[in-house]
Amino acid sequence: MGEWGLGKMMQSLTLGCDCLGEIRYLDAVLSDDRGGARTIANAVCIHEEDYGILWKHVDLWSGASEVRRSRRLVISFISTVGNYEYGFYWYLYLDGTIQLEVKLTGIIQTSAREPGRRPDFGEVVGPELYAPNHQHLLCARLDFDLDGTANSVYEMDAVAEPRGEDNPEQSAFRSRATLLTTESEAKRTIDPLASRHWKVVNPTSLNGLGQPVGYKLIPGQSTCLLASPSSSVGRRATFATKSLWVTRFDPDERHPAGDYPNQSGGGDGLPAWTAADRPLVDTDVVLWHTFGLTHVPRPEDWPVAPVEYAGFVLKPAGFFDRNPALDVPPTTNGHCSSGG
Ligand SMILES: [Cu+2]
Questions:
Q1: Distance 295 CA to ligand 1 centre (A)
Q2: Distance, CA 268 to ligand 1 centroid (Å)?
Q3: How many angstroms does the Cα of residue 305 sit away from the middle of ligand 1?
Q4: How far apart are CA 136 and CA 130, in angstroms?
Q5: How far is CA 196 from the centre of its chain?
Q6: Is the predicted pLDDT of residue 67 greater than 80, yes or no?
Q7: Three-state secondary-structure class, residue 8
Q8: pLDDT category, 338, cuts 50, 70, 90?
Q9: pTM over 0.90
Q10: Is 340:250 a contact under the CB 8 Å cutoff?
Q11: Structure confidence by residue, pLDDT tens digits, 262-306
Q12: 76 with 103: CB under 8 angstroms?
């Protein structure tokens, strides 16, 4: 992906096939390999779609019921990188949630297999055909400016309270917030059992409850690089060895493996920048989130693989004073006359 370039492999989308409903398309104008301009017609699709229930409650005693439906604005493009398709879908929800979903599909890479021999590092997907195990790891550069640039990042872990006098029922747990103060401290990995996520706050901007406004970065089901950090791919894609890096904003730092990843020796990008170990408290921060999946191929992935998903969510946490989607009107249709 890094060597081909996702942007320049964007494909033109076609009305009624890639997106449904009320659609607006945007063209993309890119530079080609000789520095000229190239236009990709209908490269980005913007549409809106229903997304089930936004919120609901039935009062068991009065029988009163309220429900509102969720809608999301979808901004998407699809890149074809060799044999694979990568669809990028940004979702903007009515409750302030922002999500990136990457859809992986296309043709898996295959190789001939010696009849009767089970491959050590891949799976049989067809007669005398095997597909090697592999990983799809992406890195999103998230340039936060939450009500300004004085932002700080906390790692949030759910931690069980030890047994003791203060925990007589042995069921208490707390949310532990650890401030990431420097770039060397801010090289982190996911921890699903601790419900680990990261929270960006602006201590100089308070919500109506007197708390610093915040947004959470919540990883999805994800992974990190399985190849050794000292391997060729580990040296060249060092960003993939961690789930999160945080850097102090620098407009020249845009690509996590450096500006020239093709056939590089490695070391550029995040490992080079964070060697400076810049302080991160109440400053203009950039979060780099590595996410993705380990693909152990299935027979069902052949001859064309159904979509697999990877991604993450950005969720307001004290950015608003209460549920910001209270003013969504009830829906009416043939089966329900109103929201009440
Ligand atoms: Cu794959």
A1: 5
A2: 26
A3: 8
A4: 18
A5: 15
A6: yes
A7: helix
A8: low
A9: yes
A10: no
A11: 999 999 999 999 999 999 999 999 999 999 999 999 999 999 999
A12: no
